[in-house]
Amino acid sequence: MKISLNWLKEYIPVTHTVEEIANKVSLTGIESNPVTLSQGLDKLVVGHITSIKPHPDSDHLNVCTVDVGEDEDIQIVCGAPNVADGQYVIVARHGAHLPEGKRIKHGKIRGIESNGMICGLDEIGVPEKYVPEAFQNGIYVFPEAEKTGSNALELLGLTDEMVDLDITPNRADTLGMHGAAWEIGATYDEKPDIKKAELDDAKVKELSDVTAEVNDPKLVPDFLLRELKDITVGESPLWMQRRLWNQNIQPVNNVIDAANYVMIEYGQPIQAYDLDKLQENKLVVRNAKSGEKFTLEDDTEKSLSHNDLVVTSGTQILGLAGVAGGISARVTPDTKNVLLESAVFDGVSVRKSAQRHDLRGDASNRYEKGVDNGSVSEALQRAVQLVDQTGSVSEISQEIVGNKTEANPTVITGSIAHINHLMGLDLSTDKIMKIIDQLGFEAKLDGDAVTVTIPTRRWDMAIEADLIEEVIRIYGYENLKGTLPSGMETSGGYSPKREFSNKLSDSLLSQGLDEVINFALLSKTEVKAFNTKKTNLTKLLHPMTEDHEYLRTSLIPGLVNNVAYNQARNNNDIAIFEQARIFDRHQGEDRPAEVEYISGAISGNIANDSWNTTKKEVDFYDVKGIVEELLSFTNAKSHFEYVTTDEITNLHPGQSAFITADGQRVGYIGKLHPSYQSEHNIDDTFVFELNIDELFELNKRKVQSQTAPKYPSVSRDLAILVDKDVESGQIVNDIFTNGGKYLIDANIFDLYQGSHVKPGHKSLGYHLVFQNPNDTLTDETVEQAFDVIKESLVQKFNVEIR
């Protein structure tokens, strides 16, 4: 809510700058910022067009003679379609500064001298959508004659200074100028002088043309109407228009503008209808029927739900209650009789309807947060007063009541001692009573006991704690003395599990992967893509969109989306990971379990061209190496294996494997299936996913430091011919099983398939390292172990030693 300083001065004396006011209000608990309009603009004056003639070398330009309050008129070439003789307009003089760094200079336009510019509102900083419709495609014309040469910005309200209140949901009372005046006034010990609206009694008649009915009083506590007869609909006065566009509201006509003006003034939305366009002379507020159609003022049609609250006349839907008006009874320049509505609608119903139909606006925002039911009638009277002032109303009806709830003030009791105790202060009774009075509350003191009557404008207050909060706000949080807490201190730190997961993240970061954070909600197709746990899907009751209906069962779909997003922008070398939770819901359970996972996706080159290297595309073994390095940080006793699989349909069946720890599955690794990559428009991508919770539960080994070996190692190379279906991992496991206590390493260094190798076979080469940390190994000891290894391989895998 932007609070106009000029408008605020009508209620309280304001001598402070907007910066000082914003800082003061922020210290009371409502974050505020100063707003300065038309900053940097200058030399914009009122001009009077005294003559106009067509440009000799253009079919759309005109040469205007303009009086700008100087000794001689100036000549300006203007291309606006609505420029005309006799108009009072905005003129940017030579040297004027306009928004976005534009500067006006003398010049010639198609050979004719032009000494300035005639401007539209959008050209001097008013957003185009808030410019009155009549002036959206041309220059702005003042509705009345103004003094030539006077400051145009000042006349248009663009020199006004404002304070932008970023209110919390419980302080919706400041969504109106009256409430804001009470709030700002309380901080400066100034009570606002707010005059009540008064009507011309001679015009108020006992009219009974229209009746009102509310089907569910719980959803509509208040519904009040007034008829206005024989009005003149036209342009609203400039003072009203400028306050509206400064509040980001487009002026329309004097009736609609008066309704919007009251909404800003009181915080109470007002709706206007053309009385003669009603289907029946009875307004009914009811729930819509499912499938009913409602056409908005912009001709957009909405299909309604039975949960939507509507205002109707017969079968005619006039508006979506508290959200939007319809086109069928809109007030236009031809309107002669008007019906004004002031109401209180259930905030939850309004919020859900506004969200359901994507129609959140100024009115729905106020109903959602709450409005003062004590000012519903007064706000309606103020709207009638403004329309009468600007539209010459001949007759005004008495208040027509569909439903009316008595507005009773809240009474809170407490004690001075208890208030001081909870604040940790020792304020005097007089000081506390003065603060309560500053807030505009009535208080009675009986010894130590105090009874406070809260006006209906502060519907957020109900208990003593609310009153104490108000006292300490106005007293000033900055006046509280800093004290250290007493008692036992608890040292902070991460849990063991959190430290473990951080260690895994650090491992991937050290290997060059970048961490990403993705949304936990996905579409149904995405959550099923990598649901390797076969868990039951968890769907939200009220999803934002169809793409965010389900809680994820894997982190991989989010990473795939990241890869697709980057590759679409020509960022092809990608190495990313995410550490987050997936949601595992077992049969019969209402709430899913949250399981910690860590997953990665790598695509493109893992090494690029350089003066001493050549580029290399990532492959399965590069990613396997990253995962092995990651698993080394688990410090687990378990033996990790990679078991080939074709169970995960969206992974390549020849390049995917489950990762097991002593036979227990803890994750998987693989290349995305070509068809899945094609669906997502991505290049070859390798992924992995590990269950952090299961890794954390693995038995940990004790790590002991030891000195470097004093004795040299002995190596042997082993070349074998083996069936192509035998995995290298099986060979390595058997080598370690039979290699004896001095075998410390066994690495594959060669793989060959082709000519000179039997069909269906492959040649593998292994480098074996033996070492005795306490003595020098003899060739005899090494050869004995080497022979045992070869004999076992021949027996178990039918290998040929080469």
TrEMBL record:
<keyword id="KW-0694">RNA-binding</keyword>
<feature type="domain" description="TRNA-binding">
    <location>
        <begin position="38"/>
        <end position="153"/>
    </location>
</feature>
<dbReference type="InterPro" id="IPR005147">
    <property type="entry name" value="tRNA_synthase_B5-dom"/>
</dbReference>
<dbReference type="Pfam" id="PF03484">
    <property type="entry name" value="B5"/>
</dbReference>
<dbReference type="Pfam" id="PF03483">
    <property type="entry name" value="B3_4"/>
</dbReference>
<dbReference type="InterPro" id="IPR002547">
    <property type="entry name" value="tRNA-bd_dom"/>
</dbReference>
<dbReference type="InterPro" id="IPR005146">
    <property type="entry name" value="B3/B4_tRNA-bd"/>
</dbReference>
<feature type="binding site">
    <location>
        <position position="460"/>
    </location>
    <ligand>
        <name>Mg(2+)</name>
    </ligand>
</feature>
<dbReference type="GO" id="GO:0004826">
    <property type="term" value="F:phenylalanine-tRNA ligase activity"/>
</dbReference>
<protein>
    <recommendedName>
        <fullName>Phenylalanine--tRNA ligase beta subunit</fullName>
        <ecNumber>6.1.1.20</ecNumber>
    </recommendedName>
</protein>
<dbReference type="InterPro" id="IPR012340">
    <property type="entry name" value="NA-bd_OB-fold"/>
</dbReference>
<keyword id="KW-0648">Protein biosynthesis</keyword>
<feature type="binding site">
    <location>
        <position position="466"/>
    </location>
    <ligand>
        <name>Mg(2+)</name>
    </ligand>
</feature>
<comment type="subunit">
    <text>Tetramer of two alpha and two beta subunits.</text>
</comment>
<dbReference type="InterPro" id="IPR005121">
    <property type="entry name" value="Fdx_antiC-bd"/>
</dbReference>
<dbReference type="InterPro" id="IPR036690">
    <property type="entry name" value="Fdx_antiC-bd_sf"/>
</dbReference>
<dbReference type="InterPro" id="IPR045060">
    <property type="entry name" value="Phe-tRNA-ligase_IIc_bsu"/>
</dbReference>
<keyword id="KW-0460">Magnesium</keyword>
<dbReference type="Pfam" id="PF17759">
    <property type="entry name" value="tRNA_synthFbeta"/>
</dbReference>
<dbReference type="Pfam" id="PF03147">
    <property type="entry name" value="FDX-ACB"/>
</dbReference>
<dbReference type="Pfam" id="PF01588">
    <property type="entry name" value="tRNA_bind"/>
</dbReference>
<feature type="binding site">
    <location>
        <position position="470"/>
    </location>
    <ligand>
        <name>Mg(2+)</name>
    </ligand>
</feature>
<dbReference type="InterPro" id="IPR020825">
    <property type="entry name" value="Phe-tRNA_synthase-like_B3/B4"/>
</dbReference>
<keyword id="KW-0547">Nucleotide-binding</keyword>
<keyword id="KW-0067">ATP-binding</keyword>
<dbReference type="InterPro" id="IPR033714">
    <property type="entry name" value="tRNA_bind_bactPheRS"/>
</dbReference>
<keyword id="KW-0963">Cytoplasm</keyword>
<comment type="similarity">
    <text>Belongs to the phenylalanyl-tRNA synthetase beta subunit family. Type 1 subfamily.</text>
</comment>
<keyword id="KW-0030">Aminoacyl-tRNA synthetase</keyword>
<dbReference type="InterPro" id="IPR004532">
    <property type="entry name" value="Phe-tRNA-ligase_IIc_bsu_bact"/>
</dbReference>
<feature type="domain" description="B5">
    <location>
        <begin position="407"/>
        <end position="482"/>
    </location>
</feature>
<feature type="domain" description="FDX-ACB">
    <location>
        <begin position="709"/>
        <end position="802"/>
    </location>
</feature>
<dbReference type="InterPro" id="IPR009061">
    <property type="entry name" value="DNA-bd_dom_put_sf"/>
</dbReference>
<keyword id="KW-0436">Ligase</keyword>
<dbReference type="InterPro" id="IPR045864">
    <property type="entry name" value="aa-tRNA-synth_II/BPL/LPL"/>
</dbReference>
<dbReference type="InterPro" id="IPR041616">
    <property type="entry name" value="PheRS_beta_core"/>
</dbReference>
<keyword id="KW-0479">Metal-binding</keyword>
<keyword id="KW-0820">tRNA-binding</keyword>
<feature type="binding site">
    <location>
        <position position="469"/>
    </location>
    <ligand>
        <name>Mg(2+)</name>
    </ligand>
</feature>
